[in-house]
Specification:
Length: 391
């Protein structure tokens, strides 16, 4: 007999890695009711506050009224509706690519795209801190997975040299790292991709809607949009909706339509989601989007500087994701629990989301936080940090 389910759960608890869900009542705003109590939300990816916006709600309701509640089939059967095509045209305009393909989530996009592009005999070069969905896509693909040290272009270059000529090469990276908030060296990666004739895929789940003049993302910010083969992004974070996409050439889109299993074998996104995503794109590219990005940036700068002044040793970064390193899992979880008692919800992050020994409190800022919210949060975080000996 193998281990029972109960024993396995016990082992997870003993390792300090037990997880459970918490319930938010009402809309996802900067303050939420969590398990019946109002708290300041400091761990949402709803960076621009769009998930609770009346405009997105209305767009979603109108799409449902006009097109119904479900697409009823996968995209290649009868599940391609006018809204899917409209959204794909808007994404291509937003990202300035020839075309785009919508996926049901970021997880589905990464697993589908990677396994469609490479297979046995090919090599994937993946940043060590890439999101789990990239790792899972790599494992599904049967290609050889080589994880290079975080943002280390010198190490990546020697790996590319060593594996030159072995099938197709795919370099893949988060643009803004989800747990660290730092930015990948995209210009250097473009240089390497050209020298070593590799494909470059960039997952901009946390930069889309947030970075670049019109919110188009990290590649635009760094001036490399034309040189990235696959610009992947999501709607479930700054854009306040759900789903994801690959912004690509027409040729690559054709390949994904024919090969990406998560695209082929799943019912397509429903009208409610597509309507909200279209409205989110409109807002992000409008003057309101610019204003929201300015608030987000100012809020992120403020929380970073308050926490640094309080004595926290924050990793370099300029984005809305601010990690407070605690090392051990128990400290991260205590930190989160004690803050919750003070009315602030920031999530503790443990393996396998981050490497062992690199546990942290992951704080995320929203454009809709007020200065008062952030001042209070920084004060409470510093107080708990001192009590736990983190500072
Ligand atoms: C970098 C990155 N890629 C992909 C995903 C998955 O996206 P989704 O939540 O839409 O499945 C996430 C979400 O946590 C992410 O942080």
């Amino acid at each position: 007999m193998g281990t029972t389910i109960q024993q396995e759960l016990e082992q997870i608890r003993e390792r300090g890695l037990y997880r459970s869900t918490r319930m938010v009542s009402g809309r996802q705003d900067s303050h939420v009711e969590l398990n019946g109590r109002e708290v300041l939300l400091l761990c949402s990816n709803n960076y621009l506050g769009l998930a609770g916006s009346p405009a997105l709600v209305q767009a979603s309701v109108e799409a449902t009224e006009r097109y119904g509640t479900s697409s009823g089939a996968s995209r290649l059967v009868s599940g391609t509706m006018a809204l899917h095509e409209r959204l794909e045209a808007e994404i291509a305009r937003f990202k300035r690519t020839e075309s785009s393909l919508v996926f049901n989530s970021g997880y589905a996009a990464n697993t589908g795209i990677i396994a469609a592009l490479v297979g046995r005999g090919d090599v994937i070069f993946s940043d060590r801190l890439n999101h789990a969905s990239i790792v899972d896509g790599a494992l599904l693909s049967s290609a050889r997975l080589i994880r290079y040290p975080h943002n280390d272009v010198t190490a990546l270059e020697s790996l590319l040299k060593r594996h030159r000529g072995t099938g197709r090469a795919l370099i893949v990276t988060d643009a803004v790292f989800s747990m660290d908030g730092d930015i990948a060296p995209l210009r250097e990666l473009v240089g390497l991709k050209k020298t070593y004739n590799a494909l470059l895929m960039v997952d901009d789940a946390h930069g889309s809607g947030v970075l670049g003049d019109d919110g188009s993302g990290t590649a635009e910010l760094l001036g490399v949009s034309d040189d990235v083969d696959i610009l992947m992004g999501t709607f479930g974070k700054a854009l306040g909706s759900f789903g994801a996409y690959a912004a690509v050439s027409a040729e690559l889109r054709e390949l994904l339509v024919n090969r990406a299993r998560s695209f082929i074998f799943s019912t397509s996104l429903p009208p409610a989601v597509l309507g909200a995503s279209l409205e989110a794109l409109r807002i992000v590219r409008s003057p309101e989007g610019t204003r929201l990005r300015q608030s987000l940036r100012a809020n992120a700068d403020r929380l970073r500087s308050l926490l640094s002044e309080a004595g926290f040793d924050l990793p370099d970064g300029m984005t809305q994701i601010i990690p407070i390193m605690t090392g051990q899992a128990e400290t991260a979880m205590h930190f989160s629990e004690m803050l919750l008692e003070e009315g602030i919800f920031a999530q503790g992050i443990r393996p396998p989301t981050v490497p062992a020994g690199a546990c942290r409190l992951r704080c995320t800022v929203m454009a809709t936080h007020t200065l008062r919210d952030l001042d209070r949060a920084a004060e409470r975080i510093a107080d708990v940090g001192r009590r736990l000996g983190v500072i």
